[in-house]
Every structure is written in C-alpha cells, then in structure tokens.
Amino acid sequence: MSSESGSGAPETRLRLYKFMRDVDVPVYSPAAPNPYSVGRFGAGGWPTLYLAESSAAAMAEFFRINPSLLSVQGGVKVTVFEIEIEVWGRLVDVRSTADAFAAGIDPAELVSSDPEPAKRWKACQEFAAAARADGAVGIVYPSAASAGSWNLVLFDEPDVSTWTVVDVAEVGRPTIDPAVVCFLTGS
Fold first, then answer.
1. Does the reported pTM lie above 0.85?
2. Which of 91, 83, 82, 86 is nearest to 140 (CA)?
3. 148: helix, coil or strand?
4. pLDDT digits over 100-121, tens only?
5. Residue 16 located in a structural domain
C-alpha cells in the first residue's frame, strides 16, 4: 500500500472505520482530522485522522483505552462510522516486521502497551514526524488493540494531491469479545 503524489486516479481507495463518542458527533465531523490530536503518531503538531480496517478493530481501539466500559458495552454512547477515502500521496506501510525495520522503527514500538503514553508513543511520534517531513501522507500500521488487524493514520487536512474523503456513513456497532482486546499493560 504505497503511492506517489500525482494527478489522475488515486493510488489507493479504502473503506475504513472510526469510533466517536456520541457527545462529539454533533461537534466534529468523523472524517475531519483532529487538529489537536495527541496519539501514537501525533504529538499535537499537525492534524491526524486515525482509522481502523474494520468496525470491530475500531471498537477494540476504543475499549483498549476505556477497558472499564467493556463489561457494559451495550450502554456505551459510541457511534462507528465507515469512511471511504482516496489516497494519492505516499503511505508508509509498517504492518510487517521486515517493513517496520526497513522503515526504521522497531515493530515492538508500534504495538507498545506501556501504561505511560509518553513512553508508549515516543518512538512512533518521532517516526511519524520523520515520515511526514519526508513527504508521507500517512502510515499503515498494526493495531495495538486487535491482533491481526491494522490501522491507518493520515496526516494534515485532506487535499486533492494527498488524500480526500469520498463518503462517510454511520454503521452498526459490533459487540466486542473481551478476549480479543489487547489491553494496555496495567489495565
């Protein structure tokens, strides 16, 4: 999943998923990058949009950071959206161990479960800053919450030379088996 910037047809077209707390739905577009996002691949210096390969993986990501809500998931006020995107810019794909090492990041850092965010995210934030400075528009990486799944983080605002949102639709929220969620260490 790699592409070069250019004109014409997009290199990659994907249907991915995102969770949003219901209190945020009227305020923020689910397809808009968060300009203040601090997470695995963003330290708040540029907007990021995090997407998961499936609705189940998106919910696993939610419950990874909110483990106390897993036992009452039916009452959790979260909406899942399917977001279709087109990507023209270059994506760095570090899903495989070999690709991660080749790109310059230890694969263990990509799925770190250290309970301290500064430690858990430091290497990934530095990797993202370098990838973005080198012209990448996003990173495809293994999910830390759902073994065997992957996520995509897109950098900056959508633009026809990098990536755009084609469609956004609310979809049903899956019930998540607690046994499949990879929790933070100490949770």
1. yes
2. 91
3. coil
4. 999 999 999 999 988 888 888 9
5. yes
